[in-house]
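Hello,

Following up on my earlier ticket. Below are the two sequence lines again, exactly as submitted.
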Amino acid sequence: MILSIILLIVFVVSIGVGSVFIPPLRVLKALFALLGFKMPGVNQMDLTIVGQIRLPRIIIAMVVGMSLSVAGALVQGLYRNPMADPGIIGTSSGASLGAISCIALSLNTMSIFYLPLFSFIGALVVSFLVYRLATKDGRTPILNLILIGIAVSTFISSINSLILSNINQYQVSEYIFWMLGGLDSRSWVHVKISFIPLISLILCSLFFAKRINILILGEEESYTIGVNPERLKKSLLVLVSLLTGVAVSVSGAISFVGLITPHILRLIVGSDYRKLIPASILGGGIFLIVCDTIARVLFSPVEVKVGIITSIIGAPYFLYLLKKRENEVTI
Amino acid sequence: MPLWIENLKCGYTRPIVEIKNKIEFKEGKVYGIIGPNGSGKSTFIKALAGIAKIFEGKIFYNQTNVFSLSDIERAKIISYMPQSVFSNFPFTVFDIVIMGRYPHEKSRFSNDKESKKITEEKIDMVDLTPKKYSSILQISGGERQRTSFARVLAQESKVLLLDEPNSNLDITHQEKILNIVKDEVKLDKIAIIALHNIKLAAKFCDIVFLMKNGKIVDFGRPQDVINAENIKKVYNSEAIVYKNPFGIFDIELIQKDDENGIHVHVVAGGGQGQAVYKLLVEMGFKVTTGVLATNDTDFETAQALSIYTVFTRPFMPISEEEYLENVELIKKADFCILCDIPFGIQNVKNLEALKFAKKLFIIEQEDISNRDFTDGIATNLYNNLKEKAVVLNTLDELKYILQKGGEK
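Thanks for your patience. The regenerated structure is below:
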């Protein structure tokens, strides 16, 4: 598919772009050399820049983009609403609660693993809480899920503000940095903790594609076609909170990727989740790598947080889509 | 393998539908559920589909409790078409219909060849082939309903539960869908349909259940269940149930005025009397009619409306006795109405009798010469009657005059 070719090109080019520009051919050479192939005439500097600095960061950008975008697609199917965002089930606010607790307890200074771990746990706990509160008699009506999601998120945000107003200046800026969502100084350590779980979760989501299509038809139809909506909703919620939880833990809160990417791709490939999920995987990867590259070079040598770039591109585009929606029936 | 239920109590937060009887749904039959709005038709259907909550009782198919089966096994037995179809997502008609194949497919991701073939077939059956790849957001409500129906067909289950499958459809497709259902049950399937259109229920169902306030009031063959008495009981309105000129069961609701004690005698035949009878009965007149042959559709209408009728055997001329009885009624009647009917040897005596009418209205749409099959005898009598009668062209004129008469 065209998208996978674009992803490859974007991947290679973005590695080359930065304070030191490396042409794509040299990037490829360096990449192959890193993979163990014998490449004559490889620049040793290229190897360091590509291998140690840019490659891990771009891999993180790619898998995080993929995960958020797939999570968005799943949530939109789950809520039967093409305007839903993964944050709606409480993962975002949960992750920030985890992050801020970690910062407030100064645990983040002890090991770089603590911040991701705390935000991951926060995301899971809060989304589980939302799910439990919204479930009654074994059924989880979508409306309950939305309302309780909003209520819980608001509650958590106020707790966050409470903590925020009681910690020192340094910690506040630490938290704000986390919240803006950045991929700066991400190293192989981050790749190690996130790559395999995220890729397996992403592949796992493909397994649900056909059933999500049926769920979108309506819960009654879905039940009588043989797809138990309650069971499917549960699995999807677990999947989405794991995906966003892990992604957010390594990247901070990056907004709009999960909302925008599946939405745009739906316009191109249609609503069939068997096409939409693969497209969202690739599209999310492309989107975040591009945004991250812009973030790196826009005000170089100063870096902008990637979360800011995604919002700056995403929000106006989203408004444009909403405007356009008024004029036509499709989406 | 029949489907049966016993002592069922179902609803949502509390039981709405309560069925005391043991009901067995047999293969090869179409079952209709009729009743006014809010009578529990949909809830009953949803309970059978496993969507509404079952508080008491069980649903068995072939001796197994349907809801103890796995989701996929159950879907192979029972399919369900909801009343309204709603989605925000631009799936195509094909996408939707092929979803019905889910319980039959092994793959969790792709669709197999057989499914695609069956999907094409079902889309063709509901006349949507030209719109196969259209988004369901861009087709009409009726087309969406047909898409949903095709999806249920593609599921190829043993029991089809349809909740008002034709509420949004044009008349041809209303009947077409029910015809497809009739063909489906020939493959040893069971169809259970909630319908608000009693006429369609009478025409297509083998057995109907009449519901009111969550209870089954009566059930059986449509001709036994759908009668004036039951309709009065359930819908709280007067109705006539009769066979229309095509020999098909028909039903007409009437809003009866208070009886005004005025006696009207009608000479009709060949279906010309139906509208007149209904009008007169609704306006509260005491109506008699005659002489009619027992195979005349007007005879059946008159019976359905409980109009006193002088009748004769089919294909026989009116006997002296019947003639005299008719004359008696004509003499007693405050006025008489002669409908636009053809005359032959059998009924020409009705014309003779009308000369005793105190007052006569003639409804004439076609010239008498065109409907005289007695070599001029009828024309002669008719023209004599016409001299002292009021001649009208339409039923509306009659209604107008009668209303004015009522005021005096």
